[in-house]
Write a structure and sequence with these properties.
mainly alpha; 3-stranded antiparallel β-sheet; about 130 residues
Length: about 130
């Protein structure tokens, strides 16, 4: 029987998979930590699906990509999602609630996040993905 938790994790996996070409497993993990940080901070009353839905709607990566289930990277991402969801993995974003690929940041992101370090400090990065508070 499919549980509600498994349904949420599958949507998280699907969302994160589209970022595998950006910074691999570490990048996907970081983005997953950001989503977890939003849930833990009470965004959308702490509802995972609402946080994921909002993120998808705001993302430039709107298309769905399904993995080859035999891909070893996907198998490792499944393990990471379990740890992200259960809050048993270290937060490589240092509490980040926003991220961008710096070279591809939209003007809106620059205006509302990057240009306001007093409100949204840069907390960490994984390669070209930068995380902000």
């Amino acid at each position: 029987m499919l549980t509600q938790e498994a349904f949420i994790k599958s949507h998280l996996l699907t969302y994160l998979w589209r970022f595998r070409k950006v910074e691999g497993l570490s990048g996907m993990t970081g983005i997953g930590c950001v989503l977890r940080n939003r849930v833990l901070s009470g965004w959308f009353a702490g509802d995972w699906l609402s946080v994921i839905k909002d993120t998808v709607e705001r993302s430039q990566f709107a298309n769905i990509e399904f993995p080859d289930m035999r891909d070893p990277l996907f198998a490792r991402l499944v393990w990471k999602v379990e740890s992200i969801f259960d809050n048993t993995i270290d937060d490589i974003t240092n509490g980040g609630k926003y991220w961008t690929v710096l070279a591809e940041a939209t003007e809106e992101f620059k205006k509302t996040i990057i240009q306001h370090p007093e409100d949204h400090p840069r907390l960490s990065n994984v390669g070209g993905i930068y995380f902000f508070g």
